[in-house]
Each structure stands twice: as structure tokens, then as C-alpha cells.
Design brief:
The chain contains six helices and seven strands. The protein is α/β, with parallel strands linked by helices and 235 residues long. The chain has one domain: Rossmann fold. It has a seven-stranded parallel β-sheet with strand order 3-2-1-4-5-6-7, with helices on both faces. The radius of gyration is 17 Å and the shape is globular. The protein binds NADP nicotinamide-adenine-dinucleotide phosphate. The site of NADP nicotinamide-adenine-dinucleotide phosphate (NAP) has 27 residues, from α1.
Length: 235
């Protein structure tokens, strides 16, 4: 089995790698990193340095594979040094909005374009992006986080649209939008204080939930928006 984790150095991405290592002993694991250097001493993992928002770099990455059984995209942005997610439209900043679209949506489209032929080569393969429940339009009761919400809603639309196209042209690929639950990573750090006790998962827990769920999902589930507990989320 050949598995590619995009954003393998991030909180959830590194949890996914560790879980793959413990579950799929004969899997060939590939992972990407961006700014932060991984520990390359673990020879079980093939690391690739990629800015996943750059199409030429995604194309070069795809050329390193003949086939792929699983692609899990764990890249994402909620805040950066200069801006937290908006509480009000008065805080809206076009550059921050573009950064959210660039990092939360664009990579999935580029990865789908360049990896579909690789994922087609397996009996059953998975194309998964870590999304977020706040991207649900019908579940939106609190408002706020305009750029992040819009980018994740657009991401969900992209995944749903892909699943429909691939039912016709690459029916072995199961496309999933995965909500991980609040997980203790740099991305969620500024928002952990007010969480009810017991609601913060470790990256290892999130990854375990995901890989417990995966064998229960097949091409009939393609195009689902699903959370860590296996619940189908409303769009
Ligand atoms: N943590 C949560 O509670 C939570 C909840 C719901 C959804 N999510 C979603 O889960 C996913 C993973 O988040 P996380 O919590 O693991 O956050 P994280 O620890 O901040 O990881 C995000 C990763 O994205 C990478 N990245 C950003 N821009 C990139 C680019 N242009 N090219 C390549 N890599 C890039 C970062 O690498 P560099 O820093 O090296 O750029 C980082 O490793 C995100 O999509 C997030 O929206 C998380």
C-alpha cells in the first residue's frame, strides 16, 4: 500500500503518519513538508519538500509516483502571525481571505488534478482532505471566522464535485471530507481555553479515529462529509 500524507509535519499530519506506521506495517509512506524541517532519521518515511499551493511543485511531486492507494491532505490555515480569524466583518482583510482560500482550498484541486491517474491504478483508493465542521453552511449557528468558514465551505463543494466526476471517470476512488474534531495543534492553540473539558483530542486520538473509520468507508460513501465519530455532517 502506498500512502501520501500532505502536510506531514503539521499536528494532525504527524499524528496520521504515526498511526499509519503502527497499523499498516508494510505500507510505503510518503509525506510532504513545507517550511518546517522534519526529522529525516526515520527511514520508513520518504519526505518531499513541497509548497502545495504551487501547481508546478504538485506536478513534480506526482511524477514521483506510479500509483497511489491513499492521499490524505492535512494542510490548513486558520490564523497566522498577523491575524486571527475574524470576529466581525469589520476585521475582514482581503489578503487574509486569499491566504485562507489558497491554503484551505487550492491544494485539494491541484492534488486531484495531478494525482487522479495515480489513484486510478488501485482497486479501491482514498482521496481525503481534512476539512472542518465550521465549513458547514446549514450547521452555522455562531457566525464569525468569515475567511476560514468560506474557504472550508468551498473546499467541501470541491470535494463533492470531484466525487461526482470520479463516479463516472475514476469510480475506484473514494473522496472524503473529514472533520477531525478539535485537536491539540498549533492551529487550535488560541481557541482551546474555553473548550469544555474532555473535548480536546490529541493528534494521535484524531488519527486513530480516522483510521478506525476508514475500513468502513468505500466508494458508495464517496462525497461524504464525515466527522471523527463517523457522523455524516450536513453541508
Ligand atoms: N486542529 C483542529 O482542532 C482542527 C479542527 C478542524 C479542522 N482542522 C483542519 O485540520 C487540518 C490540519 O490542521 P492542524 O490542526 O494539524 O494544523 P497545523 O498543525 O497548523 O498544520 C497545518 C500544516 O499545513 C502546512 N501548510 C500550510 N501551508 C502550506 C503550503 N503552502 N504548502 C505545504 N504545507 C503547508 C503547515 O506547514 P508549514 O507550517 O511548514 O507551512 C502545517 O504543517 C487543517 O486543514 C485544519 O483546518 C483542524
Amino acid at each position: 500500500m502506498i500512502i501520501l500524507i500532505i502536510g506531514g509535519i503539521g499536528g494532525i499530519g504527524s499524528g496520521m503518519i504515526e498511526e499509519v506506521q503502527s497499523r499498516y506495517l508494510s505500507a510505503k509512506i510518503h509525506a510532504t513538508y513545507h517550511k518546517q524541517q522534519p526529522n529525516k532519521q526515520d527511514e520508513e518515511i520518504s519526505w518531499h519538500e513541497v509548497n502545495i499551493c504551487d501547481e508546478s511543485q504538485v506536478a513534480v511531486l506526482s511524477q514521483k509516483f506510479e500509483k497511489l492507494d491513499m492521499l490524505i491532505n492535512c494542510v490548513g490555515l486558520l490564523h497566522h502571525n498577523e491575524q486571527l480569524p475574524e470576529k466581525s466583518i469589520t476585521q475582514f482583510n482581503p489578503e487574509f481571505f486569499q491566504a485562507n482560500i489558497n491554503i484551505n482550498l487550492l491544494p485539494t484541486l491541484l492534488l486531484a488534478k495531478h494525482f487522479q491517474n495515480k489513484l486510478r491504478q488501485s482497486g479501491l483508493s482514498y482521496f481525503v482532505t481534512v476539512s472542518a465542521k465550521v465549513g458547514s453552511i446549514s450547521d452555522n449557528r455562531l457566525g464569525g471566522w468569515m475567511s476560514y468558514r468560506c474557504s472550508k465551505a468551498a473546499l467541501n463543494m470541491a470535494l463533492k464535485t470531484l466525487s461526482i466526476e470520479w463516479q463516472r471517470t475514476a469510480s475506484n476512488i473514494c473522496v472524503l471530507s473529514f472533520h477531525p474534531g478539535t485537536t491539540d495543534t498549533l492551529l487550535s492553540k488560541p481557541f482551546q481555553a474555553r473548550l469544555p473539558q474532555g473535548q480536546l483530542q490529541t493528534p494521535a486520538q484524531t488519527a486513530r479515529y480516522f483510521f478506525d473509520l476508514l475500513p468502513t468507508l468505500s466508494t458508495e460513501d464517496s462525497g461524504s462529509f464525515i466527522d471523527y465519530a463517523g457522523n455524516r455532517l450536513p453541508w
